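Discussion board: Methods & Data

I've been asked by a reviewer to show the raw model output for two of the constructs in my manuscript, not just the figures. I'm not sure how much to include, so I'm pasting the format here to get opinions. Each protein appears as its amino acid sequence followed by a line of discrete structure tokens. Is this the kind of thing reviewers expect to see in a supplement, or should I convert it first? Here is construct A:
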Amino acid sequence: MNLLLVIGGNLGDKLENINTTCVLLEEKLGKILKKSPIYETKAWGVTDQPDFLNQALQIESNFSPFEVLAICQEIETKFLKREKKRFWGERTMDIDIIYYENWQILTKNLVIPHPYRTQRKFVLEPLADICPDFVDMITQKSVKTMLNGEW
């Protein structure tokens, strides 16, 4: 099944952390089919922190959405994901499930598609590199259309 993730962080060796995360995701989740370029972006939400490196990935995976979440959280934990000082604060690695096929899941621990996907340029820009014509099942707009603000 087609899984779209955005990974990134703003602490430590950011480039090495992205590369290591890609290796771990491919080992644990499935084959990485496409990778966007790596983007340097300003923090979103809480802006008084270092810039992030972000990358979108398309992965072929046979795991359930909840298994994917558990694997992503396990990988994040290897990086000591974030200081718990503040929500949306600094982190070594964050793995966001943006889309998984056309699944729509709304639970306490997992929301697919990602609830902030349409508001974050650091999500839409790298996604547009790997799947510009992917249509969001809720907005019925393509990633490219959302990135260009053509609502």
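Construct B, same format:
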Amino acid sequence: MTAASGLGAAFEDRFGVPPTHVARAPGRVNLIGEHTDYNDLPVFPMALHREVRIALRPRDDERVALYNVSDEFPPVEFEIGPAIEPYVQGSWGNYPKAAANELARRFAIWRGFDGVLSSDLPVASGLSSSSAIVNAVGLALAHINEVPTEVREFAVVMADAERYVGTHGGGMDQAISLGARDRCAAKITFSPLRLRHVNVPDDWCFIVADTGERAEKSKAAMAAYNSRRAECAEAFRIVAGHVATTNMTEKLYTSYPGLVGAVEPRTLVEAAEQVLQGNLLRRFRHVVTEAARVEEAVDRMYAADVTGFGALMDASHASLRSDFHVSSVELDELVAVAREGGAAGARLTGAGFGGCIVALADRWTVGSVLETLVAEYFERRGLADRIDDRLFVAVPSRGASYGAIES
């Protein structure tokens, strides 16, 4: 493995010696299945060609010294231990600390590294730049300290690690960033974690467009995100009890997958309408119907049915907007503009509250969709500068890796 010359040079400028290894972890775009992973229900993302890279050199002590090539992010330096004190909420340095803290707690690691990090992922855009940092740092520390990194087990460790920052997320981001395959999306199921890789049809184009509004789950949106998880859990508890006492099921289910597997979605929603109201009903309805959309979307991709897949994306966005309340004016506008440009479907991607959309086109319509997005959203809003960072066609790419730099 080679380090990009710029990143290697930045390391040598900082530390006076060349780096010896590179850790890399991609971001991801979730095609469908939003806010389902923390309910142990399936998701359907793919890894991106954009990634976090760390040029590094192992140390023989407990210290981690990590510098970001972007001046926006201050240096991170800390000692490894099982109870690492976090920085202030929202600091990017909490993501490297998260990986170190969890690995020290579980495996008593002690060796750190000197590193320089670069990323071409838009920050706080719903493309999982934060999890890419956790994964890249985690992989580096695991290899340096001879900790096993089998994808499924390590993804669970890294998902637990990221909760250090205060966001009670699920396991999608870590799993796809670590376990993705080239040219594939992956249906991910949980408890236990499994990845089912699905080839993306060659003529399908998933377009990522950034609203320009940051979606920072570690800051303002944290409480809103965490409240959605709590509402989903409370709604499940009430509905599961109701369907058990009315003999709709043979037993009291303790998880969404068990309940969804026993009762078809429409019947579950009808049952929920008898015992829930307001936001609890809306959250439950979204989760149950979104899980069903994931299952159908996998079939539509196998069948290369671009129209059917697009319709599911549209339905997902409508549910996220009306039932889960995580869309925004900007996200809704981008979705509408993409559809006007000829996209088969479009939806917000990631947690919402800002960030990106993903739109589906084919090779014959992708140009029209891109041109319409530029003219009708980015230019009108004065966001046409750095357009390659804000708008691109996603390339389904391989998962994270760690390796020595070739001399």
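Answer (T.O., handling editor elsewhere):
This is acceptable in a supplement if you add a one-line summary per construct. For B, something like: The domain at 222-393 is CATH 3.30.70.890 (Alpha-Beta Plaits).
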